[in-house]
Design goal:
Layout lengths: L1 H16 L4 H12 L3 H33 L1 H25 L14 H13 L2 H14 L6 H25 L3 H4 L4 H23 L6
Helix pairs in contact: 1-7, 2-3, 2-5, 2-7, 3-5, 3-6, 3-7, 4-9
């Protein structure tokens, strides 16, 4: 029973985290820059681990109630942050040179990078819905060591995904040194941020109807 529980946790965790989001876009960018990659992927995977443990430990019901009460505010704030990040990336795309080296942002400090990672991780209401509420709710079908195996599977999925995303991105570094490559990437990331922000606005009921 342990293996099926582990496989269930891994499959669910990987499928949830696979969706393109602000956090994933940030990890991808850091991987392309080859900048603080290990710290970034460890931070993101560890953050997921803590949230998954909270959900599996039984906090999913409490968080669900809180999200239900303050959904509009949470999604509204998330929309503002995502839109702001999109504007930053769009500005970067507009200001970019014809050829941008992956060494372009080597001066960024560890503190700045981890602060951004923290905001993108914990400032997104969906991370709580996915890790604490959904993964936590599914864990209710397991008990004892099977429940531990399920949680371990979800945690493993997070580590595997972020390490693949962070270090796999570095393989694209030569391509990203070509003319306009960074401009295109930043423009695409900006588009993703704006689409996600719109989704947050709709989810929070800010558009009415």
């Amino acid at each position: 029973m342990l293996l099926p529980a582990y496989a269930t946790g891994f499959a669910l965790g990987f499928s949830l985290i696979l969706a393109i989001g602000a956090q994933n876009a940030f990890v991808l960018r850091q991987g392309l820059l080859r900048q603080h990659v290990l710290l970034v992927v460890l931070f993101c995977a560890t953050a997921d681990t803590l949230l998954i443990l909270a959900g599996v430990a039984g906090l999913s019901a409490l968080i669900a109630d809180l999200v239900g009460q303050y959904a509009s505010v949470l999604f509204g704030l998330a929309a503002l942050w995502l839109a702001g990040y999109g504007v930053m990336r769009l500005g970067s795309a507009i200001r970019a040179d014809d050829a941008i080296s992956t060494d372009a942002a080597t001066a960024t400090t560890v503190t700045a990078v981890l602060t951004t990672a923290a905001i993108l991780t914990f400032g997104n209401p969906h991370v709580y819905l996915d890790t604490v509420v959904l993964i936590g709710a599914v864990s209710l079908q397991f008990h004892g060591t099977s429940k531990l195996a399920y949680g371990a599977g979800a945690i493993t999925a997070s580590f595997v995904f972020f390490f693949i995303l962070g270090y796999g991105a570095s393989l694209l570094a030569p391509t990203m040194q070509r003319p306009n490559a960074w401009r295109i990437l930043d423009a695409l990331i900006a588009l993703v941020m704006f689409v996600l922000a719109l989704g947050m606005v709709k989810a929070g009921g800010w558009l009415g109807g």
